[in-house]
Each structure stands twice: as structure tokens, then as C-alpha cells.
Design goal:
It is a single chain. By secondary structure, the protein is an alpha/beta fold. It folds into 3 domains: 3-81, Winged helix-like DNA-binding domain superfamily/Winged helix DNA-binding domain (Arc Repressor Mutant, subunit A, Orthogonal Bundle); 88-161 and 260-296, D-Maltodextrin-Binding Protein, domain 2 (3-Layer(aba) Sandwich), CATH 3.40.190; 165-251, 3-Layer(aba) Sandwich (D-Maltodextrin-Binding Protein, domain 2). Helices cover 46% and strands 21% of the residues. The protein is built from 11 helices and 12 strands. It has helices at 3-15, 18-25, 29-43, 59-81, 99-113, 126-135, 177-183, 194-205, 219-227, 242-245, 274-296, and strands spanning 48-49, 56-57, 88-95, 117-124, 140-144, 154-163, 165-168, 186-189, 212-216, 233-235, 249-251, 259-267. A 5-stranded mixed β-sheet has the order 4-3-5-12-6, with helices on both faces. It has a 3-stranded antiparallel β-sheet with strand order 10-7-11. The radius of gyration is 21 Å and the shape is globular. It starts with a helix and ends in a 5-residue tail after the last helix.
């Protein structure tokens, strides 16, 4: 049972809903729901009374959260006391769009916290990186977890929910979502990617009259076209610094926007190796730093 699931359990107990817990943990609602189902299967009984508007924790949930909070704190303290340095080589795959914001933070943090750990990175699309982990060409990868088809041979650890937004030309200060698609052509993110699927699903679910003009797999190229007034798009902006290069107006897509789960994927036999745990700590730090930048840019809460 993953220790992160117990941190999520505490968030659900504190907040009373999966949605609020997901927001606190920066995960998708489906990821939180999946973790609670795993815990219920582990304990063999329901952890919450779901009869009301809010989830009410059963006594076993409160007891488990209390025990695990204390136990995990002691285990983490014991691990930090270890004099064994984390060293060796670990190969990590990152999505191409995440290299600019994350890689400098990963390398600098690792140099400070784990100077003997040699991180060797590669980049690509989620499916290719998932395949590389499965085949042993990569040790870990930070990728978009597919809604279907996630390999059961791998261990998927939810790291952060990534929200899609609508971007429109910078001069359009009062444009609504519906007006944006009536006035401008839709610059589509590549349809075979997670972002592309989610964007198309959102447009279809809202019956938006989207007139497709181009299909690209580069968020930078899309932002450049939108900034020039050549269309609108729905995408996830991994690097908020691009908004300074290509100014656009960002429109958030409501209380339940389209989003995907960013996950750390490893082979099941490698999940608890010291190198993988060290890298997970580094990635949590880097994602937190970038999340603060994305919040300041109005890309997420």
C-alpha cells in the first residue's frame, strides 16, 4: 500500500469531499477516488459513510489515518537518519514540454540534496516513455497517466493534476468561451495526445461550434499563433514563462475543467528503491516550484 494514499485519506477526512481533497493534494478527483478504493480494498470495509452530501469518515478511517501519520513520520525520520548516501545512476523520462520548467530545478535540487546521484534524462511523449520504462530503457518517467490502457505491469504514483485552459488573443479582454469559438478558428492540439483528447471532449460536451484550422503538437507554436490573433486553443501550459514571450489572454474553464493526472511511473520492482524515492522527492519539490509560478500566472489554483 502506497504511503501517499494515507496522505490523501487525511485530506478527504479534513475536507469532506473528494473534490476538495483533490484540490488540496493537487490531484484529479479520479486519482483521489482510486486511492480511497485501494484503501477500502486493503482494509476490507468502507472508510466513509457516503449517504450525505459530504463523506463522513468511519471509525476505521480515523484510526488508520492517526496510526499511519505517526508511523510514517517515524519511518521518514529513520530514513533521513541513514548515513548511506543515495548514489548511482537513474534514468528519467520527461515530457518534452516539461523540460524547460522542470529540468533546471531537478538538477539543482539533486546537486544539493543527493550529490552522488547521477540523473540522466530523456524526453518524449507519454506512450513512448511508458514503453521505455516497461522495457527497462528508463528507470522512471513523469508522464500523463492515460484514462485507459495504463500498463498494469507498472506502478503509477499520482503527482499532480494539470488543468487545461482556453487561450485567446491578448486584445480580447471580454470574450466568453462560446464567443471565442464563434469569432476565431480552433488551433487544435495534436489529437492523439492526452491534451488533444481532453480538449476535443470539452468542445464536444459544450456543443461549441469549433472551426478547426490547424493541428499542432507544440504548445509554444500554438501560443505564438494565438498571440498573433490567428486563432484560439485549449491546452495545458507547462511553462508559464512562455506567456511572457507570447502574450495571450488565459480563460479558466470552470469549476470542473478538463485536466489530466501527471504520474510518476516505475517498474513495480523499482518503486521503493532509494534512487527512485530520492528522485520522487526531487520531483515533488520541482513541481511545487513550478505550480507556484503557474498559480501566479492564473493557470491553476
Amino acid at each position: 500500500m502506497k504511503r501517499d494514499a494515507f496522505a490523501t485519506l487525511q485530506a478527504v477526512i479534513r475536507n469532506g469531499t473528494l473534490t476538495a481533497a483533490a484540490a488540496e493534494r493537487h490531484l484529479t478527483v479520479s486519482a483521489v477516488s482510486s486511492q480511497m478504493k485501494q484503501l477500502e480494498a486493503y482494509f476490507g470495509q468502507p472508510l466513509f459513510d457516503r449517504s450525505g452530501a459530504q463523506l463522513r469518515p468511519m471509525p476505521v478511517a480515523i484510526k488508520a489515518a492517526r496510526i499511519m501519520t505517526e508511523a510514517l513520520g517515524r519511518i521518514e525520520a529513520l530514513r533521513n537518519e541513514s548515513q548511506i548516501a543515495v548514489g548511482g545512476v537513474i534514468t528519467v523520462g520527461l515530457l518534452e514540454s516539461m523540460l524547460p520548467p522542470l529540468l533546471p530545478l531537478i538538477i539543482s535540487r539533486c546537486a544539493t540534496e543527493f550529490p552522488e546521484l547521477d540523473i540522466r534524462q530523456s524526453s518524449g511523449r507519454s506512450l513512448a516513455l511508458q514503453t521505455a520504462v516497461k522495457s527497462g530503457d528508463l528507470d522512471v518517467a513523469l508522464i500523463a497517466q492515460p484514462e485507459k490502457g495504463a500498463s498494469s505491469r507498472l506502478d503509477w504514483q499520482p503527482m499532480e493534476a494539470r488543468e487545461l485552459v482556453l487561450v485567446v488573443p491578448p486584445q480580447e479582454r471580454t470574450l466568453t468561451v462560446a464567443d471565442a469559438f464563434r469569432r476565431y478558428e480552433w488551433i487544435r492540439y495534436e489529437r492523439n495526445t492526452t491534451t488533444g483528447v481532453l480538449a476535443a471532449r470539452y468542445i464536444q460536451s459544450r456543443n461549441l461550434k469549433a472551426r478547426e484550422s490547424k493541428e499542432l503538437d507544440s504548445s509554444g507554436a500554438i501560443l505564438a499563433l494565438v498571440s498573433a490573433g490567428l486563432g484560439v486553443s485549449i491546452l495545458e501550459i507547462s511553462d508559464p514563462r512562455m506567456l511572457r514571450v507570447y502574450p495571450v489572454r488565459v480563460i479558466r474553464l470552470g469549476k470542473r475543467p478538463p485536466c489530466y493526472q501527471l504520474a510518476l511511473v516505475t517498474r513495480k520492482s523499482d518503486t521503493n528503491k532509494r534512487q527512485a524515492l530520492a528522485l520522487k522527492d526531487v520531483l515533488k519539490f520541482a513541481l511545487g516550484e513550478v505550480r507556484a509560478q503557474r498559480q501566479a500566472a492564473g493557470l491553476c489554483d
